[in-house]
Amino acid sequence: MDSIFHEKQEGSLCAQHCLNNLLQGEYFTPVDLSSIAHQLDEEERMRMAEGGMASEEYRTFLQQPSGNMDDSGFFSIQVISNALSVWGLELILFNSREYQSLMINPINEKAFICNYKEHWFTIRKLGQQCRACTLCEDCKLLKMGILIYV
C-alpha cells in the first residue's frame, strides 16, 4: 500500500470518518449518512404505524428524537451497517455466535469498527499491520497507533 488515507475528524462526525478510514477514501459525507438515518427513521415509523396510528405507543414514538442520528452528528450502528451494505460489507456484532468463531483467530480479519464512549473508530489491517484510525484524545489511544499481532 503506497499511502494510508486518514480523514481527520471534524466535530462529532466520527461515524463518517470511521467509515471513510475503513474504506480508505472519501466515500461518505454527513449528508449521505443523514439520508440513511432518515430512511431508517421512516422505516421505523411505518413499522410502528402498523400497530395503529391512533395508539399511545405510536404517538409517543413520534414525539421522540431520531435514534439513528442526533444534532451533534452522531450516527447509530444501524446507519453504519446500512452504509457498509452499499459496498457489500456486513457488520458482525461482537455478541453474536458468528463473531465468537471469528475471534478464534482475529488476525485473519481485515477490520473492526469499535465504539468507545459514543465515539466510532476503525481498526484496520493495512499491509501486515493493524492501525487504529479516527481515535479521539478522550480515548487515550494513539490517533494512528500501530497494533501488531504477535
From TrEMBL:
Catalytic activity: Thiol-dependent hydrolysis of ester, thioester, amide, peptide and isopeptide bonds formed by the C-terminal Gly of ubiquitin (a 76-residue protein attached to proteins as an intracellular targeting signal)
EC numbers: 3.4.19.12
Keyword terms: Hydrolase, Nucleus, Protease, Thiol protease, Transcription, Transcription regulation, Ubl conjugation pathway
Pfam families reported in the protein's UniProt record: Josephin
Highest taxon of source: Eukaryota
Top enzyme category: hydrolase
Identification of the protein by name: ubiquitinyl hydrolase 1
Organism name: Mastacembelus armatus (zig-zag eel)
